[in-house]
Amino acid sequence: MVIKKLLILCFTCFSFQLYAQERFTLSGSVLEENSNETLIGVNIIFPNERVGTITNEYGFFSITMPKGEYEVVISYLGYKQRIETIILDQNISQTFTLNESLESLDEVIITENVEKLNIKNPQMSVNALSSSTIQQIPVVLGEADVIKAITLLPGVTSAGEGASGFNVRGGSADQNLILLDEATIFNSSHLFGFFSVFNPDAIKDLKLYKGGIPARYGGRVSSVLDIYQKEGNNKSFQANGGVGLVSSRLLVEGPLKKEKGAFLLGGRSSYAHLFLPIFDINNIAYFYDLNTKLSYKLNSKNNIYLSGYFGRDVFSISDSFENTYGNTVVNFRWNHLFSDKIFSNMSLIYSDYYYGLNLNFVEFDWQSGISNLNFKYDLKHYVSNSLKLQYGLNSMYYSFNPGEIEPSTPTSGINAQDLIKKYAFENAVYVDAEHKISNKLTASYGVRLSSFLRLGQKELNIYENDNPVVFNPNFQIYQQAKTIGTESFNQSNTIKSFANIEPRIALAYQLNATSSVKASYNKMSQYLHLLSNTSSPTPLDVWAPSGKYIKPQLLDQYAIGYFKNFYDDAYSLEIETYYKDIKNRIDYIDGTNLIANDAIERVILNGKSRAYGLELLLRKNEGRLKGWLSYTLSKSEQKTEGRTPIETGINNGNWYNTPYDKTHDISITASYDINKKWLLNANFLFQTGQPTTYPNGQYVYNGISIPNYSDRNSTRLPSYHRLDLSATYTPKPNKNEGWQSNWVFGIYNLYNRRNAASISFGENRITGTNEATRLAIFGIIPSVSYNFKF
């Protein structure tokens, strides 16, 4: 009888505890009030309980709490804070809307609790920029530019003025994964680097991952630039754009069906070439691009999106030469909510990069490119407030066209020729976890299992001992090996396969309410290689897959950092140090010719690279004067040793600077609100000169002066620095309806610094002596643009 009473008592206590711990979930989306655009990274905070969450890439959130009545704070930088009272006695799905703030700055400061969550977040080596910030940064020719903006961040540099792409932590441009609405962009530049392919008016969210990269990303070993386009206004029609000296842009958006579906259409074009005939110049250089997006809400649990980008550059010299290149991407996405805790996204993506040359003076056309078809399926599982899982799979099919030559006229003496097309299949599965281990310790960890199949091709060269590059000990040089035969494969065959396990982990330990230390480790694989022997990519460069003779690049990266907020979050400080080690980084033998090379393996050697450095970012987040100071101290080196004791390797097997090594990199970016009508912006840059190879002597042979070159990349161009200014004038700053506009006046390179893009050496035809010639692209450039919105 006593035992029976004890059992009844225990059961009663257990039932009481179960009821006391009864928990319910608040889930939903956060939208922008005027357009119903989903907002990414919005904070949903339970301030009294000191817990919260943020919206994901599609504006969805989920948080589970014990039964009760709560005050909920919804806040997002640049928007009015919203406070709601929620009675949580059942699972609730709710949509919150936020209004863009037109109040004074003090009304839009992120609350203290939000900053505490950022301190606790294990994510590190990540930078985010808003579209408004990008548009305020002074740039060349007055055109707002995403790529130029991110080079003002620590650890990010460019190869110089007029150079394509960007370099992250000493890596090359091809080691950056660039995504636009999840679709891969293979060339991020217009007009050979003067502009980027991203229209800032169409951008909703931008994040640059330099380290601590989540397991959902893969395929590159340096960074991930993840950009999402706006979805369109499903409430009302609106448009915005701008007119500049060399280019203009227009973006329109509106409802397909009010509060259910929306469209977005944006276009840009340059037109400076239209004025060239005035100066009797027959050359042409211009670009145009188009951003599109359709979104539709099927019901409360299903949304579909169709987005696309199309861009082209055209460059011609008189009637003898024309160059056309650009990207095309299309993405269909389906968001599905399985429950208030499981969110899914399925994407079917097509991406293509095309490069074409019409060489009329020799009467033939050249075409090359790369395309891929990508299937992604991702799920985010809100297991609890202390554990969130993200898992999924990714499959990509690649088609590589190294080049096609066709005669352009019936009388051309050129024979049609196709370089051998290549095919590959890249697959991955992953799982990511964000885990709050204790009040002070938070972890993000995961693993990615990737595989790469080099598929069959029409013809593959065979070499003695499978060695396509041989060493000539007599001349101490590497030479292309002779083929001893070929083999053919069906496209369904696998020539070579690779598989790699890529673990990721990041930890954050909160020291106090305003500071934390973080550490991360990444292992990543890259199966694609951009074949280029220039310091920055050019449209003529060709992508090649790993295979029988080319190994995938393998990265190990370690980072540790200290993060602190000062003076009620008015200032923030980030200090990080990192070390990167990369295996199988390719380099080229001396005298390499990459153009129309159908046996690229005969000029490639596998080496390794390393990069390490210290990054500092000090931000001022509030007040009339805002901005940041960025400083990077770094080293980036490469090493290609001999494969046998008698081989010299490259640079005698010693470490040598990569073309992306910049010892010092300083950027200062500032904006100052003079009053409601005038805003001043400025940025100053200083970078150590780019490594290069100079001749260190010469000798005369048969009356000809022949230079003798120093070790590879052992010398540098002069240091790079410049100062840019801009002023934005808004005639009617309080107007928030109808036609709204502003003027932007800018000066690029204020003190007219003639920064060297390159220094070449040659013989002076008059004196017969060797001399150096410096090429500088930009001096001082004023600009003016008019921006509007209605």
Automatic annotation (TrEMBL):
Residues 1-20 form the signal peptide. Its EC number is 1.1.1.42. It is found in: Cell outer membrane. Its cofactor is Mg(2+). Its main location: membrane. It is a multi-pass membrane protein. InterPro entries: Beta-barrel_TonB_sf, CarboxyPept-like_regulatory, Isocitrate_DH_NADP_mono, Plug_dom, Plug_dom_sf, TonB-dep_rcpt-like. It catalyses: D-threo-isocitrate + NADP(+) = 2-oxoglutarate + CO2 + NADPH. Keywords: Cell outer membrane, Glyoxylate bypass, Magnesium, Membrane, Metal-binding, NADP, Oxidoreductase, Receptor, Signal, Transmembrane, Transmembrane beta strand, Transport, Tricarboxylic acid cycle. Residues 125-220 form the TonB-dependent receptor plug domain. Pfam families: CarbopepD_reg_2, Plug. Belongs to the TonB-dependent receptor family. PANTHER family: ISOCITRATE DEHYDROGENASE (NADP(+)), ISOCITRATE DEHYDROGENASE [NADP]. This is isocitrate dehydrogenase (NADP(+)).
